[in-house]
Amino acid sequence: MALDPFGDRSRYACLLAIHRDFHALIAPLYAAPSLATLIPDLAARARLSAVEQDAADLHVPLAPPPPPRFAANAAPDRGTAIGWLYVAEGSSLGAAILLKAAMTLGLGPSFGARHLAGHADGRARHWRSFTAAADAVALSSEEEERALAGAHEAFDTIAALVRREPT
After folding, report:
1. Using an 8 Å Cβ cutoff, are 164 and 100 in contact?
2. What is the rounded average pLDDT of the residues 142-146?
3. Residue 159 exposed, middle or buried by CB count within 10 Å (0-12, 13-18, 19+)
4. Which of 25, 90, 131, 145 has the highest CB neighbour count under 10 A?
């Protein structure tokens, strides 16, 4: 919150850059056929294009995205991927608070803050459907350890993206 992302639209642009870069890192996960068999609505959950549209709405020039953390066209490690997805999907719950703050800047689910909008079924139901699918995946103990490590890596990555922004 030291970035004051809702202080004005230029501060909000910093938040958009962070979100775009995070979602660019994980975009291949949402397109991975091997994960789609585990989480059937995974592709529909991707938010990269929504973040990019939000930036376009506000004429925010974004630097080139970082290279993806996961290779496109390659099956990601299930454990690591589930850890990263858990963090990404869990963030949609907190996005309700962020959306309310974005609305004070004249932004909303159809302009400038669509990536913060909740799912039509409701945030909680959408989250529960993700966790039910993720929990149904039979992971080995080693994959469970990688899932935990992946979640920690995702959180650390977000922290690093925040630190790079000017305060």
Report:
1. no
2. 97
3. exposed
4. 25
Is residue 69 a contact partner of residue 77, using CB atoms and an 8 Å limit? Answer: no
pTM of the model: 0.94
Confidence class for position 74, pLDDT limits 50, 70, 90: confident
SS (H, E, C) 109-164: CCEECHHHCCCCCCHHHHHHHHHHHHHCCCCCHHHHHHHHHHHHHHHHHHHHHHHH
**Which pLDDT belongs to residue 95?**
92
108 forms bridges with which residues in the sheet? 111, 112
The three-state secondary structure class of 108 is strand
Whether the pLDDT of residue 2 is over 80: the answer is no
Distances (CA, A) of 162 to 16, 18, 41, 65, 157: 11, 7, 29, 15, 9
- Write down the CATH superfamily of domain 9-164: Heme oxygenase-like (1.20.910.10)
Closest CA to 30 of 11, 43, 49, 14: 43
**What confidence category does residue 167 fall into, taking pLDDT thresholds of 50, 70 and 90?**
low
Q: How high is the mean pLDDT of the chain? A: 94
Contact yes or no for 88/22 (Cβ under 8 A): yes
Report the SS3 class of residue 62: coil
